[in-house]
Amino acid sequence: MIFGRDKTQLPTPETALPGRESRPFAVGDRHLVTGNPIETDGPEGFEVAVFGLGCFWGEEKTFWEQPGVWSTSVGYAGGITPHPTYEEVCTGLTGHAEVVRVVFDPAVTSYDQLLKVFWENHDPTQGMRQGNDRGSQYRSILLTTSEEQQRKAEASRDAYQRQMTAHGYGQITTQIRPLDEYYYAEEYHQQYLVKNPFGYCPLHATGVQYADV
């Protein structure tokens, strides 16, 4: 609880923090692993996908290791407060989740393949937490950037639900909706596990494999 409020409850527009008109911190220029820009949509023909599956430090590393991923960043999305800080997101009063923004080459990898990475690297049935990380910022969320991504994300959820049910898990709680705004996180969060190779950010995968839709 913070300020007498449960951080697993999403705020309303009336109760959300007001935020600000512009970003109050630096993000950084180049990706420390790929060497490509951080604030980018990538070369012509590349695509962008946004995934929230818990603590974004380890999950960013999971995605930048995938073939065809050109750049990644971590940030905040899915909520209300414009240009939030990490401290504000942690209060649960912004509505944002910690997310990874992935720029990828569809000639090398596909959104379907990235969805497989998403489903297999967390537990999508836990609601407003992942493991001991409790709060709305740790919820499972897919924020789509096209109608095709929306369709594929929903189909993948339905397919994975069948597999999860067969393994004794409950209902998937993953939110799936179009991306509204993505706000980059502070520079020290970007490629955090490169800067802090012994940093703590556990995965909470179920071990249930995702089969293609």
Automatic annotation (TrEMBL):
<dbReference type="InterPro" id="IPR036509">
    <property type="entry name" value="Met_Sox_Rdtase_MsrA_sf"/>
</dbReference>
<comment type="function">
    <text>Has an important function as a repair enzyme for proteins that have been inactivated by oxidation. Catalyzes the reversible oxidation-reduction of methionine sulfoxide in proteins to methionine.</text>
</comment>
<dbReference type="GO" id="GO:0033744">
    <property type="term" value="F:L-methionine:thioredoxin-disulfide S-oxidoreductase activity"/>
</dbReference>
<dbReference type="Pfam" id="PF01625">
    <property type="entry name" value="PMSR"/>
</dbReference>
<dbReference type="InterPro" id="IPR002569">
    <property type="entry name" value="Met_Sox_Rdtase_MsrA_dom"/>
</dbReference>
<comment type="similarity">
    <text>Belongs to the MsrA Met sulfoxide reductase family.</text>
</comment>
<feature type="domain" description="Peptide methionine sulphoxide reductase MsrA">
    <location>
        <begin position="49"/>
        <end position="201"/>
    </location>
</feature>
<dbReference type="InterPro" id="IPR050162">
    <property type="entry name" value="MsrA_MetSO_reductase"/>
</dbReference>
<dbReference type="GO" id="GO:0005737">
    <property type="term" value="C:cytoplasm"/>
</dbReference>
<dbReference type="GO" id="GO:0008113">
    <property type="term" value="F:peptide-methionine (S)-S-oxide reductase activity"/>
</dbReference>
<keyword id="KW-0560">Oxidoreductase</keyword>
<protein>
    <recommendedName>
        <fullName>Peptide methionine sulfoxide reductase MsrA</fullName>
        <ecNumber>1.8.4.11</ecNumber>
    </recommendedName>
</protein>
<feature type="region of interest" description="Disordered">
    <location>
        <begin position="1"/>
        <end position="22"/>
    </location>
</feature>
<feature type="active site">
    <location>
        <position position="55"/>
    </location>
</feature>
<dbReference type="GO" id="GO:0034599">
    <property type="term" value="P:cellular response to oxidative stress"/>
</dbReference>
